[in-house]
Amino acid sequence: MSDENNTSNEEELEPNHEENNSQEEHKSDNPVADTRISHLGGMYKSWFLDYASYVILERAVPHLNDGLKPVQRRILHAMRRMDDGRYNKVANIIGFTMQFHPHGDASIGDALVQLGQKDLLIDCQGNWGNVATGDGAAAARYIEARLTKFAQEVVFNPKTTHWKMSYDGRNKEPITLPVKFPLLLAQGVEGIAVGLASKLLPHNFNELIDASVAHLEGKGFEIFPDFPTGGMADVSRYNDGIRGGAVKVRARIVKEDNRTLNITDIPFGKNTTTLIESIIKANDKGKIKIKKIDDNTAEKVEILIHLPNGVSTDKTIDALYAFTDCEISISPNSCLIEDNTPKFMPVSEILRRNTDNTVHLLTRELEIRRGELEEAWHFSSLERIFIENRIYQKIEDCETMEAIIQTIDHGLEPFKKNLRRDVTRDDIIKLTEIKIKRISRFDAKKADEYIASIEEELEQIAYNLENIIPYSIKYYKHIKKTYGKNHPRQTEIRSFESIEASKVVVKNEKLYINRAEGFMGTSLRRDEFVCDCSDIDDIIIFYKDGRYLITKVSDKAFIGKGILHLAVFKKSDTRTIYNLVYRDGKGGSSYVKRFAVTGITRDKEYNVTKGTKGSDILYFSANPNGEAEVLKVILKPKARIRNMIFDFDMAELAIKGRGAMGNILTKYEVQKVSLRKKGVSTLGGRKIWFDKDVLRINSDSRGDYLGEFHADDTILVITKEGKFYHTNFDLSNHYEDNILLIEKFNADKVWSVAYYDADQKYFYLKRFQVEASTKPQSFIGDHSKSYLVRVTTVDYPRLEVKFGGDDKEKDKMIVEVDEFIGVKSFKARGKRLTTYQVSKINELEPIRLPEPKEPEPEVKEEEDEDDKDQMSLF
Q1: Which of 13, 181, 392, 408 is deepest in the core (most CB within 10 A)?
Q2: CA distance 554 to 556
Q3: What tens digit of pLDDT does each residue of 276-335 get?
Q4: Do domains 68-178 and 518-523+534-681 have the same CATH topology?
Q5: How many angstroms separate the CA atoms of 43 and 327, rounded?
Q6: Is 209 helix (H, G, I), strand (E, B) or coil?
Q7: Phi-psi bin for 708: left (phi > 0), alpha (psi -120 to 50), beta?
Q8: 732 contact partners, CB below 8 Å, separation of at least 6
Q9: 70 alpha-carbon distance from chain centroid
Q10: 67-182-242 Cα angle (round to 5)
Q11: Which string of DSSP letters, residue by residue, matches 383-452?
Q12: CATH architecture of the domain with residue range 249-329
């Protein structure tokens, strides 16, 4: 062992020497006593910190400048060195990369496949697996790869690359690659280090370029994730990609028919196998009901979910989002390496830094190119001077190299003032290396043209350097124009409504009660049946003494005796109204009240009476739509009571909070309260709005007001494909994004439609009244190339028909629609509008006005009558 090593060992052991002096005094006679002791705690502290730092910096976290982890950077560097324009076996790429990466072939192969599946930097050939299905790539010896043209143009430039020695000192590798594009945000990255994790979501190629251009122009921008698996994303809580944010991602589910759902896109990070497993698991637990699943995924995702009879497709879609991996939440964590230190940075700041770095790299490339051109201009000028002035002839008599150099230098002296820099010894040596053949063939005109082209390019470079921001914008636009068409947005940005699991879960249990013993549960199958429920429902229980509470469904639970009412509780339900008559204490007055229970603390007892001891409920009813019945009240016989029996209409009471005392029904003692007559709802119809952003109806005043709906009312939907259908006003309904018109159905309304009939190859006009149908019905025929032109519901519509083609010189035609054709069935073809070639059909203001009608009650909500009456064109 060398002295140097001995010295270092002694220095390491020296701190322990003083600690063990007392031990050595007692053990000096024992040879073993001279062994030094190293405490494990100190060693662990130092080594673990070194290990953690290495994993963070050299393995798991990407660098800000190029957006790559070390293994990815080394793979790309190796592929660049191997690049000859042809595909290379992945096994060869892995072997070549091992010159730079010390962690084995498995980690290189996995990283290479992941890079290839991102479809940006690596051109793949063979079976590289499938992100959608989770299938792995073929063995490395069977698949091939090469760099894409985008990678060659954007990622590499040895002249602007900073280098370091590889792990074994035999090769050089880049510290970071000079990437002139926000690659980190385009590809996304996920890595887990020691005590640190990084998760940046992928973004859209074109949107990143647009944001970079906006930054260079001094404008604001927003960028949101775009996942290769498509689907839909709610980015309202994205929080610029920093910790604490979240992105909800949903699969795209399409209704094929009333019994079949088709999943065409899957959430990012999931595959068809894991998604189907989650659906089967939810079905096994009774959260949803499905008949079977067919996975027809090939090039595109296609998972068909077949439903049993009587199961709602709309409710099943919500249940899939609530109970399966059809909806997941992704938490980004934008951690990266900058200046050899891990940092957390918003994605907008990452884009700004990348864009500024791109400007810096473009500037360096221009400066390097300018230097190369200046050198080329300098030597070309020297060469021309050297040959045209025959300075080479003066060195024929020189016997030494120094004499030759001095002679040439002296010969160049009169011309040095025309050069851009001083003539160096190396310049003169290069002149001596010019071959006689080149001198003999020297063409002064070509030399002047070459120097002129250099000067022209230098002027252009000088202009670009002075206008580096417009030059950078031009570069970004070139990248977008060249490669952007291959990277359209895959994920649709949408706003999601929160789905309450209790509203969409399948009623997979039955609730029973044993009133005598005071038990409730789903396992008491021999006792009294109450209702269907799910295993996540809450149950509301009212007692005869006025107490009530809300508790979870369970197999068997003791709830006590004296149970008056038990049912599934719906949180925030303002339409279920409880009608109550109670006696306050023993012999007290009787009160009547109406109230709703919208939400309370679970398993906490409340009281609907005043809480006086001895209070008792005389009458109770739960009304799902706010019905108010008429009660028959019988008093106990007592002197001087005139009306022993009287009726009371609950509709006279206002609905108040559950804690309200109520109104006095009577001061006398009540013998009996019974139902005289069933009532009607006092809440009126339900007011419904349609939210275009989420394609859902709601009762929360969001979107376009559709009207007030009662039990038998329906919603009419007209699609852009020329079809109509009806739905109820259940808030769980789903609507597609092909809606042209949506409104409350009015059977008396007459629809006027202009359309192109692909069967007859003419434009037709028809008038009809819509019939009730829950299935889509076409009113423009079944030919796939027929299309809708105009649709209106005004009383006396007028159309202007302009002609085109060979008939464009023909005067336009004005059509009074109600005179042109009468009202017929929606299945009728209608009447041909014209035999000439039509270029455009416009709507004109009607001349005749509808007959005056009786004034209708004023509606508080504003309806856009103009929108309702205007034609729609698409």
Answers
A1: 181
A2: 5
A3: 999 999 999 888 999 999 999 988 999 999 998 878 788 888 899 989 999 999 999 999
A4: no
A5: 47
A6: helix
A7: beta
A8: 312, 314, 315, 318, 503, 504
A9: 29
A10: 70
A11: HHHHHHTTGGGGGTT--SHHHHHHHHHHHHGGGGGGSSSPPPHHHHHHHHT--HHHHHT--HHHHHHHHH
A12: 2-Layer Sandwich (3.30)
Give the contacts of 440 (CB within 8 A, at least 6 positions apart): none
By three-state DSSP, how is residue 283 classified? helix
Q: pLDDT confidence of 38, banded at 50, 70, 90?
A: low
357-486 fold: Topoisomerase; domain 3 (1.10.268)
pLDDT in tens, 799-833: 999 998 888 888 889 999 988 999 999 999 999 99
**pTM of the predicted model over 0.90:** no
The matching CATH number, chosen from 3.10.20.30, 3.90.199.10, 3.40.50.2300, 2.60.40.1940, for 68-178 is 3.90.199.10
| Of 296, 78, 308, residue with least CA distance to 173 | 78
Residue 339: phi, psi to the nearest 5?
55, 40
Would you kindly state where each structural domain of the chain is located, as residue ranges? 3-38, 68-178, 249-329, 357-486, 518-523+534-681, 702-869
Pairwise CA distance, residues 737 & 253, whole Å:
12
Residues with catalytic annotation?
142
As a whole number, mean pLDDT of residues 574-579 equals 90
Give just the sign of the alpha carbon dihedral 605, 607, 612, 617: negative
Contact predicate 544/562, CB 8 Å: yes
From the number of C-beta atoms within 10 Å of its C-beta (0-12, 13-18, 19+), residue 93 rates as buried
Structure confidence by residue, pLDDT tens digits, 51-74 = 777 777 777 889 999 989 999 999
The answer for residues whose C-beta is within 8 angstroms of residue 452's C-beta and 6 or more apart is none
Helices (H), 501-658: 501-504
Question: Which homologous superfamily does the CATH classification assign to the domain defined by 518-523+534-681?
Answer: DNA gyrase/topoisomerase IV, subunit A, C-terminal (2.120.10.90)
Report angle CA 300, 303, 307 to the nearest 5 degrees: 155
Q: Are 688 and 655 in contact (CB under 8 A)?
A: no
Is-contact 767 824, C-beta < 8 A?
yes
The residue among 748, 744, 739 whose CA lies nearest residue 728 is 744
* Residues 123/93, Cβ–Cβ less than 8 Å: no
Task: For residue 327, give Cα distances in angstroms to 234, 244, 267.
Answer: 11, 19, 7
Give the Cα separation of 855 and 451 in Å (integer): 89
